[in-house]
UniProtKB/TrEMBL annotation:
One of its GO terms (molecular function) is transmembrane transporter activity. The complex comprises the extracytoplasmic solute receptor protein and the two transmembrane proteins. It is a multi-pass membrane protein. This is TRAP transporter small permease protein. The chain crosses the membrane at residues 12-33, 45-64, 85-106, 126-146. Coiled coil: none annotated. Residues 24-153 form the Tripartite ATP-independent periplasmic transporters DctQ component domain. It comes from Acidovorax ebreus (strain TPSY). GO terms for cellular component: plasma membrane. InterPro entries: DctQ, TRAP_DctQ.
Length: 169
């Protein structure tokens, strides 16, 4: 099961990386098209869609690597059971919020599909297509939060301490 979950997180991160490369290409195409006086319809909108997709698809991978912003001032002052209780509370609350976010993100994409909602820009893209990446990213993040919560309950959660965060706190 661990290998499957890690594959899911890494796969979402790889898709996020592909979206970032595609975003770079879209921005470069937009710049070149302006310099050469031709227009690519909707390229700015697609760049925005790719930027959002990259951000949402990378959420779970970032969480599992301990790279999300955390305020550890109170947490670091606590020891023993109080530390564990606060950690468990934070993970439970994070899990609840991630599940709600995933539910409403998927619901938004589904409603956009059901109502045939399209972009107001010149490309007229069906909005459920770019919203799908938000829903998928939110679902993978919710799975990652449930994973972290279960690991904490079982006492197997490794405390992620990224070096960058330690230097910035």
């Amino acid at each position: 099961m661990r290998r499957l979950l890690n594959f899911l997180y890494d796969g979402a991160a790889a898709l996020a990386a592909l979206c970032m490369v595609a975003l770079l290409c879209a921005v470069l195409l937009s710049i070149v098209s302006r310099q050469l006086s031709f227009h690519v319809p909707g390229i700015d909108a697609y760049a925005g869609y790719l930027m959002a997709a990259a951000g949402f698809l990378a959420l779970a991978h970032t969480l599992k690597r301990g790279e999300h912003i955390r305020v550890t001032l109170v947490l670091s002052a606590l020891k023993g059971r109080a530390h564990q209780a606060l950690e468990l509370f934070a993970l439970a609350l994070g899990t609840l919020l991630a599940v709600l976010f995933a539910y409403y993100s998927v619901r938004l994409a589904w409603q956009s599909h059901a109502f045939n909602d399209i972009s107001t820009s010149s490309d007229a893209t069906p909005l459920w297509l770019p919203q799908l990446s938000m829903g998928v990213g939110a679902m993978v993040m919710a799975i990652a939060f449930v994973d972290e919560l279960v690991l904490q309950l079982l006492g197997r959660r490794a405390g992620a301490t990224p070096g960058e965060a330690l230097r910035n706190e």
